[in-house]
Amino acid sequence: MSAAEGDAEGEADRAYAGRDATRKRLLRAVAAQTATLSATVHLLWAWPRLGDPADARPYVFLLAGVFTVAVAVATLRADEYRRLYALGAGTLGAFLVGYVGWHSGGLINALAAEPLAIVGKGAEIVGVVAFLALYRLAPPTSVVLERQDGERAEGDSAQRP
Predict the structure, then answer these.
(1) Which of 51, 67, 81, 102 is most buried as measured by Cβ atoms within 10 A of its Cβ?
(2) 3-state secondary structure string, the chain?
(3) Against a cut of 0.85, is the pTM above it?
(4) What is the pLDDT of residues 8-41, one digit of tens each?
C-alpha cells in the first residue's frame, strides 16, 4: 500500500467517526428500541388473531415482528453496515406505507380507534429517522472492512512473541 493510499484511508476513517462515537451509540439505541417497539406492537396485534384462517395478516405480522427484532439485534451487535441501516429503515417504512395503504380511506379514524397503532406508527417514524441518520453517518463498507483487517492484524502481531 502506498503512502497516498494510507493517507486516503486514514482521512476516510477520520471523516466517519468510530462506531462508538456518542451520537452513533445514541442513534443505534433509538433505532433498536423503536424497531423492537414496532415489532412488539405487531406481535401484540397479531397474537389474539392467529386462529382466524381467513386473515393472513396475523401470520405476516408475526414473521415481520421476528424479522424486525433480528434487525434491531444486528443494529446493536454488528459493525456499521449501511445495508443493515437501510434494511431497518426500509422495514419500518414498509410498516408505515402498508398501514397507510390498508387504511387509506379512513386513516385518521383507524388511528383514533386503535391506540396501539398510534404507538406503533410513532415508533416507526422515529425509527426510520434514526436508521437513516445512522446510514448517513456510517462509513462505506470498504472503510469498515479495512478497520476489521487492521484489528485482525494488530491482534495477530500482539499474539506473536
Answers:
(1) 81
(2) CCHHHHHHHHHHHHHCCCCCCHHHHHHHHHHHHHHHHHHHHHHHHHHHHCCCCCCCHHHHHHHHHHHHHHHHHHHHHCCCCHHHHHHHHHHHHHHHHHHHHHCCCCHHHHHHHCHHHHHHHHHHHHHHHHHHHHHHHCCCHHHHHHHHHHHHHHHHHHHCC
(3) no
(4) 455 555 556 666 688 999 999 999 999 999 999 9
Q: Which amino acid is at 59?
A: Y
**Residues making up the chain, counted from first to last:** 161
